[in-house]
Amino acid sequence: MEEFRFLNWKVYSDAREFFQEIIKIVSKLPPYLKYEFGSQLTRSALSIILNIAEGSGKNSDKELNRFFDISIGSINETLAGLDVLKDSKIISKESFERLFEKCKSISKQLGGFKKHIKNDN
């Protein structure tokens, strides 16, 4: 197995870029949301990246799939947080839609990995 193979994966790169956008949003949150809500949003977005990386180092496809499932769960959690910010008018509908598309792309890439792994077995 290639060492640190996740560093070459587009999904990892896209998840990192998405995380940077979340950091920018959180940095602009009002104080009453920044620490609790902002921390949760940051952790869920970071979880996407970290589970991709951790899963890539596992020895079995079953384990890799489990970490991809966790990443997909974290994408859903992050998107729900963004939806709440949109409803609260803290981010615009346009920003939400752009971030939604990034979530969808990352989720589809992970789903493609999972499908590829399943078909190889």
Describe this structure in words.
The model has no long low-confidence stretch (mean pLDDT 94). The chain has 121 residues and is mainly α. The longest helix is centred in the C-terminal third of the chain and has 28 residues, at 93-120. It contains 5 helices and no strands. The protein is elongated and about 45 Å long. It has one domain (5-120): de novo design (two linked rop proteins) (Up-down Bundle).
In N-to-C order, the SSE pattern is HHHHH
**Coarse shape:** elongated
What's the helical proportion of residues? Answer: over 70%
Mean pLDDT level: 94
Q: What Rg do the Cα atoms give?
A: 15 Å
Number of helices: 5
- From the 3D coordinates, which CATH architecture would you assign? Up-down Bundle
Q: What ranges have pLDDT less than 50 throughout 5 or more consecutive residues?
A: none
- Find the count of extended strands (DSSP E, 2+ residues): 0
Relative strand content: under 5%
The end-to-end span amounts to 17 Å
Question: In CATH, what is the homologous superfamily?
Answer: 23S rRNA-intervening sequence
CATH class identity? Mainly Alpha
CATH-derived topology: de novo design (two linked rop proteins)
Count the domains.
1
